[in-house]
Design goal:
This protein is mostly helical. The protein has one domain. It is about 85% helix and about 0% strand. It contains two helices and no strands. Helix 1 runs antiparallel to helix 2. The longest helix is centred in the C-terminal third of the chain and has 46 residues. The chain is rod-shaped, with a radius of gyration of 23 Å.
């Protein structure tokens, strides 16, 4: 019985460790992509009308807009994945806490 109990504890710890590593991985990706998106949007401003690089808006500015249009859904996906894995980790912790208090 003790062997089965220790095996359960090791599986519990393993599951929590995997879930925590997934949360950390997707959080890091979301942060990096969020910073990239903010910097990209900020770099578009000088190409707007009445700014000093507006003459080059057709040459360079439109590609920055396209890049931000690509970064936004990728950032949103990473943020959604982070939230999903965080909720999964939270539910695992709740489930394991309730199991440990009942046994």
């Amino acid at each position: 019985m003790k062997k089965r109990n220790s095996q359960w504890k090791s599986e519990e710890a393993s599951s929590l460790a995997v879930a925590q590593s997934l949360v950390n991985l997707w959080r890091q990706r979301a942060i990096v992509l969020g910073i990239a998106l903010i910097l990209n949007i900020a770099s578009i401003v000088p190409f707007l009308q009445d700014h000093f690089l507006h003459a080059y808006a057709d040459k360079f500015g439109k590609y920055l807009i396209y890049l931000s249009m690509c970064l936004l859904p990728v950032f949103a996906f990473c943020a959604w994945q982070t939230c999903s894995f965080w909720l999964y980790l939270r539910d695992l912790k709740k489930a394991y806490m309730s199991d440990s208090t009942h046994s």
